[in-house]
Amino acid sequence: MTHTSRKPELLGIVGTGLMGRGIAQIAVQGGIPVILHDSRPGAGQEAREAIIATLDKLVSKGKLTTAELQAGAERLTVAAGLNDLASCTAVVEAIIEKLDAKRELFLQLEAVVADDCILATNTSSLSVTAIAAACRNPGRVAGFHFFSPVPLMKIVEVIVGPLTDSAVADELTGMAKRMGHAPVRASDTPGFIVNHAGRGYLTESLRLLGETVAPYPEIDRILRLGAGFRMGPFELLDLTGLDVSLPVMESIYEQYYQEPRFRPSPIARQRLAAGLLGRKSQRGFYRYDDGRKEEVAPPAVPPRDHLSVWLGEDDSAAYPQVVELLDRLGVERDHGKRPCPDSLCLVLPVGQDATTVAVAAGIDPTRCVALDPLFLDGCRTLMTTPVTATRYRDAAHALFAADGAAVAVIHDSPGFVSQRVVAAIVNIGCDIAQQGIATPQDIDRAVTLGLGYPLGPLALGDRLGAGTVLRILDGLFDFYRDPRYRPSPWLTRRALLGVSLLTPEN
Ligand SMILES: NC(=O)c1ccc[n+]([C@@H]2O[C@H](COP(=O)([O-])OP(=O)(O)OC[C@H]3O[C@@H](n4cnc5c(N)ncnc54)[C@H](O)[C@@H]3O)[C@@H](O)[C@H]2O)c1
């Protein structure tokens, strides 16, 4: 099939619900004429009116001119039936998420449109290939996966299956740019890029909760303030709704043949059964009143207890920023080779827990407190062994909060909270690259735009250092003996070579 100049351009949109409307809006704003169709009588017309009302709002906000609104409205027509899509150069479907319905629709469309008309699906979770396989000409079928709300989420995944013509993907890539969206190309695999890369944040956070490392408001606070995520994982689960996120978690886990990295948590299933869906049911992890989330105050800072603090020589040399911090906080230091009998013993583990470090170094575990040396800004995370005495835990809490900084005190965990969650995200991002699902640049672009992370998984790994991420995962793997934490070959090789995680295969 050749996709030469097919004029005039006309984009058909089938399914004019939430997604179809958004796609139609950005298309007409990008100068692309659109014809709308929906199986529900009257839905196409309703969608047209809603889109024009949205454009009108943009005019009142000064974001669009009246002439642009007029031109947009003129580009937007409504089909009387599927046959009206005959002159389309491309059709995007955004109908119900059911394989049979999508296959049936594409078969019907093939009987109506020209041979070189592109058929694109906005599916999030179905196989584009399984949809294409039903078609007479599967080469014309590709995924065109937008995110909600479409006009604000300026990213679209162009999904290429083994049967997709590359010219079709090129056309969709060009169309996305004209719509003002950033296209990223991905091969047809479960979750594509964004929903695949998003597994690390949620599943590792649920795992931490399941291990009672910290209560969920504390995990949220650490990841927001300390690791720089816009929303905590439990706040995010509440926003999406467990009825939506758990099926995605389970489906990707199953589609990857029970890949341990994606193993969902029984906590989520139980909460779903309890109807604790999130914002939409007024109660998820948090309670909501009129859409407002309850405020959960962090644990109070205990009174200061002027214990002297011992920090081992190796940790002092490796983390001068921690030594500076202790000085800034006016801490009395115990400079002995071994800690004095009363000193608080501070350890700085990477990928290890406080207990393992204390026992290996012969430090009294009842006086041992660990500080996360990799995430010191925004929120300082402290971790205790199961036998750390309350006096030492509270003294460390008060000491690190003395300058008003946020401090979280958690139970023992190899890699604290941020190290673990960030390492899980980086590792999954690396494996997406290793599987050739997308280029390293597209992986990072998709994740920053699609998930709003401060950096893409590969740049996030580079910021910590590939070797450090590998050390965290090795520590987790040794401790749990769970293949969930096995490092991706992409990460291991780039760490060994000392090169950026964005380095492609040549
Ligand atoms: N909602 C999201 O956040 C989101 C994000 C990305 C992708 N998607 C995908 O986009 C698609 C649409 O999702 P949505 O949220 O817009 O759904 P929606 O329920 O808001 O809209 C679906 C529309 O399709 C129409 N429809 C159903 N079957 C049809 C058929 N056979 N022929 C013509 N019209 C039909 C319905 O009448 C409805 O108007 C799904 O495949 C979904 O997985 C959704």
TrEMBL record:
<dbReference type="Pfam" id="PF00725">
    <property type="entry name" value="3HCDH"/>
</dbReference>
<dbReference type="InterPro" id="IPR008927">
    <property type="entry name" value="6-PGluconate_DH-like_C_sf"/>
</dbReference>
<keyword id="KW-0560">Oxidoreductase</keyword>
<feature type="domain" description="3-hydroxyacyl-CoA dehydrogenase C-terminal">
    <location>
        <begin position="191"/>
        <end position="288"/>
    </location>
</feature>
<dbReference type="InterPro" id="IPR006176">
    <property type="entry name" value="3-OHacyl-CoA_DH_NAD-bd"/>
</dbReference>
<dbReference type="GO" id="GO:0003857">
    <property type="term" value="F:(3S)-3-hydroxyacyl-CoA dehydrogenase (NAD+) activity"/>
</dbReference>
<dbReference type="InterPro" id="IPR036291">
    <property type="entry name" value="NAD(P)-bd_dom_sf"/>
</dbReference>
<protein>
    <submittedName>
        <fullName>3-hydroxyacyl-CoA dehydrogenase</fullName>
        <ecNumber>1.1.1.35</ecNumber>
    </submittedName>
</protein>
<feature type="domain" description="3-hydroxyacyl-CoA dehydrogenase NAD binding">
    <location>
        <begin position="12"/>
        <end position="188"/>
    </location>
</feature>
<dbReference type="Pfam" id="PF02737">
    <property type="entry name" value="3HCDH_N"/>
</dbReference>
<feature type="domain" description="3-hydroxyacyl-CoA dehydrogenase C-terminal">
    <location>
        <begin position="415"/>
        <end position="495"/>
    </location>
</feature>
<dbReference type="InterPro" id="IPR013328">
    <property type="entry name" value="6PGD_dom2"/>
</dbReference>
<dbReference type="InterPro" id="IPR006108">
    <property type="entry name" value="3HC_DH_C"/>
</dbReference>
